[in-house]
Structure formats: C-alpha cells, structure tokens
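pls design
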C-alpha cells in the first residue's frame, strides 16, 4: 500500500504536453525544468515517506470530536507541520505575502502527490489554496495584509462554507444571515459538509461564509461573502477571544475518513463576527474564485486516486501467482500480470491516468498564461480556455478516479473486497470526488449553459481547432501507432464538433434537451480532449525515439499507451454523439409516476 510519485511521467506531461516551456519564461528562473524536477523529487519524498504511511491508519482511526474540539488521526498534525515548514503551502502564491511565486503548472503536480498519498489529509490544504485565491482577488488591502501571510505560510488554514441542510446545491436558497454592526457583521446560521471546519493542526482557522443580508434581494443575487475567523486577531496580530462559532457534529462517511467533515453553527451566542469580502450581494461571484480553484484541484484528486489505485493493482498483479499462462505448456502458475484481461485492466487504468493528468496540467498552464502572458489577446484566449476546461477537468477526471479505483479492486479479485488490502479504501475515498465542489451533473450544466453558450461556442470551437492542429501533426509522422491514433482523433473531433453545434442550437430552442445531453457532452469532451493531449505526448515520444538515447523504453511505452487509448477509449467517442443529440426524448417523456 505504498506510494511512489511517478516523477518521470509527471515531468513528461509537464514538458512534452502541458507546455511548461511556454509558461516558464513568465516566471523567471523559478520554473526552469531542472529546478522543477528537483521540486517534484522533494515533494515525492514527503508524499511517499510521510503522508502515504498514515493513509490507511487515518482511514481506520478517523477524526473525532471531543469537548467541542476536533482531533485528527495520529500523525496528521505532524505531517501538516512538516508540510508547512517545507514551504509547500506557499508554492504558487505571490512573494509579496510570503509565497514562492511558482506557476500553478508546477504546483498542480505537487498537489497530485499529496492527494495520491493521502486524500483524507490533502483535502485540508486544498481549501486554503482556494481561500488565498479568493482573498487575493476580492479582499481589501487590510484583509490581505492581515490574513494572506498566515494562510500562505500555513500558519492558519481556511474553509469554504456554502451548503445548508435545506438547500443542498441550491446556494441561492441559503438562510444564514448577516447583520451590519459597525465595521463588521454578525453571522448566524448553520452550514453542513464543511471540510476541516475544525482541526488540531493550527491555532486559527479562517472560514469563508456565504450569508444573506436582511435587505438583500432573493436568490443568488442576494448572497454576500464573509471572512469569519475562529479566533479573533488583535491589531498586533496576536490571537484574542474565540468567535461565536462551533462544530456541532462530524459526519460519518463512506470514505476520506481521516478528514473531519463538520456541521458548523454560527451565532449561538448572538452572532459570529465576520468581515465582508468584496461587495454586498456579490458574494457568489467572489466565492466562485475559490470554487473554480477547488474544482481544478478536485479534478486532480481523480487523477491522484487513480494513480494510487493503479500502483497498488500493478504491484499486486506482479506478486499474485495464479493459473498457468495462456498458450503455455508449462503447468506452473504465473503472476496474474501475464493474463491478458489483467493486462487490459491495468492498461485501461494507465491510459486514463495519462490522459487526465495531461488535461489537468494543460489547464494549469492556461491558468498561468491567463494571468502572466504579456499579450492581452493571449491572456484572453487562455482565460477562455481555462474557463472551458475547468468543469471537464473536475467531472471527467473524478469519474476516471472512481473507474480506476473500481478496476483496481477487480484486479485484486476477491482480495480487493477485503478491507485489509487497502484497495477498497481508494474506491471509497474516490467516490466523493464526483459529488463535492458541485456534482458532475452541475459541472456538465456549467459546461453547456455557461461555457458553451458564451459566444455561440467560441471557446469550444477554438479548442476543436487546437485538436485539428494535433491531427495534422500526427499525419506528418510515420508509424502505425500514430496513424491509428490520428484516425480515432479525427473521428472524435468530428463527433465533438457535431455535438457542439447541436447543443448550441438546442440552447436556443429546447434547453431541457440540452440539459439532458449535458453529461454525455462533457464525457465526450473529456474523452476527445484526453485523446488530443495523449496524442501530443505520442508525438513527443516519437520524436525522442527518432533521436535515440537511453530512455527508449519509456518513450516506447508512451506510444503503446497512446495506441491503447485510441483503440479502447477514443474509439467510443462517435457512439456518444447519438444519445446526447437524440436521446433526450426518452429522458424527458417518461412520466414521474412511472419511475
């Protein structure tokens, strides 16, 4: 049940596919390839030696609530201390507030390691990252000075408080209230599903809370965002009195048991003191800065848990001896990795991992270029690209995490169903990722009703053109593997293009039909986008092989994985067109009383 960060695979995805060379010039020497590899190596040590060994024990022990205080599993607090002291929390943030100023393109692979090693632990720092982004974009200068250095250093953590018991994903229905009182507000209400709403890692926690003013308009237009500290800070920065908030209970969950998922109560004693972030009644827009960051990282959790499940299944398949080899006269049992169906499952997992990893890293590169590219047109292009890709990364990659974890259990056979092997934990942990930070159905609606509707699908058509360039490049390089990949990519692009046109039209004439096809469209988009990026990697591998060198085995494997992706996965793309274009009739015509 160990974990070894796949540094070589990560570096290849960064350098050959995501375009680290395009990002690095905007970050000076901090993003030089040699330095990036050193960062990945050091992060891999913390992930493999500190976080991974307490993954299983953390799942068994879980977090507990004692006298109003949360206790995390043995070793979690010490692991966080090592993480914060190593400066890992400040990797992608501005040096002005204590960050290291590295690109997200580098921070994202490092985040993958934390999540693969110990998802229950890693979900805590994830939310602090999002809070830093929100305060950087929407906080006042005073708020930035007071809170960003503590959050970036890891001295304090942060949470996101959206969901309420009666509202679920309908954030506009929230009832938590905020009443003006001088330079602050008094917050009263209850929130549920608050990850790391309390912990024993740090002296303070900053809660970002959505609430409604008494005179606010109804629905999502009347929501404001507030910064609510667990402990109030004095003017000199020292900690003062406890704020009026508490953990009511911890949820009993299917997975990520090491992380405390809290029910939070604000204002039992008259109102928790909070400070407005951004403008009144514009809180949802502010919170989306945090949510979009979190959605990208949750998508990465899908990649991470798939990698962890794959490593365990691969190692088990190498060690488990069972049955004679097919076609062999030798009656001796062999490792099950020699059996064709086991090989198919492992290659299926690996191909999904490589495609989804490339997509997440490529999205991170666009995030950096949208912020740092000196040309306004390029910034706008990458801003549109990251907006388009965020729901795909979140939903497609987390679905992959669940699929890969399930396959990992299957490779183990009956032993996979036994908790002691640890394979079942990966599945249980992965299963929350398609749900939180907006269910994958919500991500599909976001892709279609916001990202696709904007500019008549302009961003999607730009991405289709990008795929076309990869097709042309494949056609110019000899080799059966690349030819097969090119043929399947062409068919996939054509299907995605037809689907895009159909849904843009349906948005105007039949929005319910568009909604019924949204999940199919997102799946098709992810499948083709993954094929496009895995093809980029195959092209790079082919060029490397033509130059010769000692790494030929690595590059040959990239071509085999790409061929598998083309034959077994990308080939499914055209079949997805019919149900999303024509399948809405059955979905919408079935009477409610017939369910």
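designed seq:
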């Amino acid at each position: 049940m160990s974990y070894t960060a796949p540094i070589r695979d990560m570096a290849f995805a960064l350098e050959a596919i995501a375009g680290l060379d395009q990002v690095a010039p905007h970050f000076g020497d901090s993003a030089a390839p040699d330095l990036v590899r050193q960062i990945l190596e050091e992060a891999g040590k913390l992930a493999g030696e500190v976080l991974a060994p307490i993954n299983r024990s953390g799942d068994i022990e879980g977090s507990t609530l004692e006298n109003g205080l949360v206790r995390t599993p043995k070793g979690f607090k010490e692991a966080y201390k090592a993480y914060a002291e190593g400066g890992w929390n400040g990797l992608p943030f501005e040096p002005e507030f204590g960050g290291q100023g590295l690109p997200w393109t580098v921070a994202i692979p490092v985040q993958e390691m934390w999540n693969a090693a110990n998802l229950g632990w890693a979900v805590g720092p994830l939310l602090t990252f999002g809070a830093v982004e929100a305060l950087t974009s929407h906080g006042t200068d005073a708020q930035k000075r007071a809170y960003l250095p503590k959050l970036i250093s890891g001295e304090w953590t942060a949470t996101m408080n959206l969901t309420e018991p009666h509202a679920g994903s309908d954030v506009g229905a929230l009832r938590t209230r905020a009443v003006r009182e001088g330079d602050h507000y008094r917050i009263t209400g209850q929130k549920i599903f608050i990850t790391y709403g309390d912990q024993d890692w740090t002296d303070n926690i900053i809660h970002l809370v959505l609430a409604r003013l008494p005179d606010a308009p109804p629905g999502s237009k009347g929501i404001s965002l507030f910064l609510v500290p667990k402990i109030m800070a004095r003017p000199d920065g020292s900690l003062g009195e406890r704020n009026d908030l508490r953990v009511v209970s911890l949820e009993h969950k299917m997975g990520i048991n090491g992380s405390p998922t809290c029910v939070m109560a604000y204002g039992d004693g008259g109102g928790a003191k909070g400070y407005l972030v951004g403008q009144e009644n514009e809180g949802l827009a502010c919170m989306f800065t945090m949510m979009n960051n979190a959605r990208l990282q949750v998508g990465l959790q899908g990649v991470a848990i798939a990698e962890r499940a794959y490593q365990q299944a691969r190692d088990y398949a190498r060690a488990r001896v069972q049955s004679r080899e097919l076609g062999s006269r030798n009656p001796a049992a062999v490792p099950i990795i020699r059996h064709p169906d086991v090989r198919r499952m492992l290659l299926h997992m690996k191909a999904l991992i490589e495609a989804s990893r490339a997509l997440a890293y490529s999205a991170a590169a666009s995030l950096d270029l949208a912020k740092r590219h000196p040309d306004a047109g390029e910034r706008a292009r990458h801003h549109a690209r990251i907006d388009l890709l965020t729901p795909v990364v979140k939903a497609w990659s987390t679905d992959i995490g669940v699929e890969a974890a399930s396959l990992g259990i299957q490779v183990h056979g009956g032993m996979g169903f036994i908790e002691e092997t640890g394979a079942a934990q990966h599945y249980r942990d992965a299963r929350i990722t398609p749900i939180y930070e907006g269910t994958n159905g919500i991500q599909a609606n976001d892709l279609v009703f916001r990202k696709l509707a904007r500019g008549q699908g302009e961003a999607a058509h730009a991405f289709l053109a990008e795929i076309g360039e990869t097709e042309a490049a494949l056609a110019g390089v000899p080799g059966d593997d690349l030819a097969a990949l090119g043929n399947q990519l062409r068919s996939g692009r054509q299907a995605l293009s037809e689907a895009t046109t159909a849904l843009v039209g349906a948005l105007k004439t039949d929005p319910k039909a568009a909604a019924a096809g949204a999940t199919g469209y997102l799946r098709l988009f992810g499948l083709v986008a993954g094929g496009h990026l895995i093809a980029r990697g195959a092209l790079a591998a082919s060029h490397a092989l033509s130059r010769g060198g000692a790494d030929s085995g690595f590059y040959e494997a990239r071509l085999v994985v790409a061929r598998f992706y083309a034959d077994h996965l990308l080939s499914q793309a055209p079949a997805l067109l019919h149900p999303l274009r024509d399948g809405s009739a059955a979905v919408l015509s079935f009477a409610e009383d017939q369910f």
